[in-house]
Design goal:
By secondary structure, the chain is an alpha+beta fold. 56% of the residues lie in helices and 10% in strands. The chain has eight helices and four strands. The longest helix has 24 residues.
Length: 183
């Protein structure tokens, strides 16, 4: 195989192999999965690990160029993005696991529950939709009423009531008021 084609073929094969293995981010991988990814990287680089520094630099440059091309294609062509990166997969719907998707993704309920607890969500009943994103991260959309209340929500409620009852002349900025109290 011509030298220039080698890194291109190896790069495409590596992406295909990594897509087959799943979509966990490096932080979420098990030790075995991390070793597998590092091993694939070593295998791909190995054909260029000879004493010719110029060939090694060219091969590394080709890998970088291929990465940039893939990122460009992913950004500009939705179909290519779905092929190369994938799309979100629903793993929780209306507070229940979606077993067929968990099986397909090879993710356990325990792994998901760990992430749910890390997000401060007390249980699955609070979740309208839970997804595994293409980058390996979990995403959660909470049911109505389960979302955390935000300062702007409290400001709206307080100001609406106080202004309506003519107890204040202008809206209160809660963040500024809290800053004043703590000084």
């Amino acid at each position: 195989m011509p030298f220039i084609l080698k890194p291109i073929v190896l790069y495409v094969v590596a992406i295909i192999l990594l897509r087959i293995t799943g979509r966990r981010s490096l932080a979420q991988m098990t030790i075995a999965q991390t070793v597998m990814v590092i091993s694939i990287g070593a295998i791909i680089v190995e054909p260029f690990a000879d004493k010719d520094v110029a060939k090694t630099i060219i091969a590394a440059s080709i890998y970088i160029l291929l990465l940039l091309i893939f990122e460009y294609l992913e950004f500009h062509f939705h179909g290519f993005e779905k092929l190369a990166v994938g799309k979100e997969v629903i793993i929780i719907k209306d507070g229940n696991f979606v077993p067929e998707n968990l099986k397909k993704l090879k993710i356990t309920k325990t792994e998901i529950m760990t992430r749910v607890r890390q997000e401060g969500i007390p249980n699955l009943n609070y979740i309208e939709k839970g997804t595994l994103e293409p980058n390996g991260q979990f995403g959660f959309i909470l049911k109505r009423g389960a979302e955390p209340i935000r300062v702007q929500d409290i400001e709206y409620i307080v100001n609406s009531i106080l202004l309506e009852k003519h107890l204040i002349d202008k809206p209160i900025d809660l963040v500024e008021e809290l800053k004043k109290q703590h000084l």
